[in-house]
Specification:
By secondary structure, the protein is mainly α. It contains seven helices and no strands. The longest helix is centred in the N-terminal third of the chain and has 16 residues, at 10-25.
């Protein structure tokens, strides 16, 4: 009951919020005119990994990993995805730990 008493005008607030959202969703006439003829290039396929990371950087990434760096930290440091880091390490055969028998 205290919550309802604290917010007596909820219907009015919700109505105002809906109005604001409706106004923001409408496209601005000026912005439509500016971007009407402009086409933005959209890449349909990702750039190959070999073009995203130079061979020297690949080797440095592998060395850092073998020195103890985490894969997620390497992804952030080299500005590539975690799956790309894993692919580089897998292709290089880099493993921190060896299986013991």
């Amino acid at each position: 009951m205290e919550v309802l008493n604290a917010y007596p005008n909820t219907f009015t607030l919700v109505k105002a919020l809906r109005s604001d959202l409706a106004n923001h969703a409408k496209p601005d006439a000026n912005s439509q005119e500016r971007t009407e003829g402009v086409k933005f290039p959209v890449r349909t396929t990702p750039r190959p990994l070999r073009k995203r990371l130079a061979p020297k950087d690949r080797q440095r990434l592998i060395t850092d990993y073998l020195a103890g760096a985490l894969q997620k930290d390497l992804a952030a440091r080299y500005d590539i995805g975690l799956s790309s880091v894993k692919t580089i390490l897998r292709e290089a055969g880099a493993r921190k730990y060896t299986a013991s028998t």
